[in-house]
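Annotated sample (chain length 259).
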Amino acid sequence: ILGKAEEIDILRNGKKQLIFATKNSVHVLDRNGRPVSPFPLNFRDDITQPLSVFDYDNNRKYRFVVTQGNEVFMYNGQGKSVKGFKFNKTNSPIVLPPTHIRIDHKDYILIAEKNGKLNILSRVGKHRVNVSKSFDFSEIPITREGKNFVIISKDGNSPGQIKNSISQSGKVNQQKLEVSSYWFTINGMTKVTIDDNLMRINGKLAELPFGIYTPPKIFNINKRTLIAITETQEKKVYIFEKSGDMLNGFPIYGTTAID
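Output written by the structure step:
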């Protein structure tokens, strides 16, 4: 499996399925593990990035985006190619799964290339924002902060990283991050960063023991926002409230990121 399995409701009836890509297929499985017709979709050429799942209007009219080298292909919930999506090939291999971001009722599809180019497209694949600067993309997903796009890129001149904030007009503001390891994630109104052993939840510091940590994950469960992270050397799983307070009973033993 490339990346992680996503939860969808492809039949729009409240019954959930899992969708994911492997090297040459896209699978949709019901909760008993059975394929949902007309899936799987099979491909002759290799799929090179995890599957991207877009739900533009949160109405479960999904778009599934398959990446093959420097090409992207978009399919609907019936496994048919979306004819209105007209994006051509990129000039170099795509290095991150394509991302959908909505700002001010406008939809943007972001595609990052190995040569450093960031393509910011409309729903139909036309270039919507021109960005003149190139980036050395890290594995941190492209995300939204306020009304800007955010890229955490590598700093070629030092072991640190650079936070790039890109406006909807394509203007880039850069902030150098003087840390040896860093992760950045946003979900709704919750922003979590971690540099080395210092985790900040909406700016509030939660200092962790020194160690090697998985990227923090944000969960919204029963109107609560919880942040989970795992230390992989001592094998401890931590869960924090949005306030920065650790849940009672944690940390617990665990070897992987929690889901």
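Annotation: The first strand starts at residue 2 and ends at 8.
Annotation: The mean pLDDT is 95.
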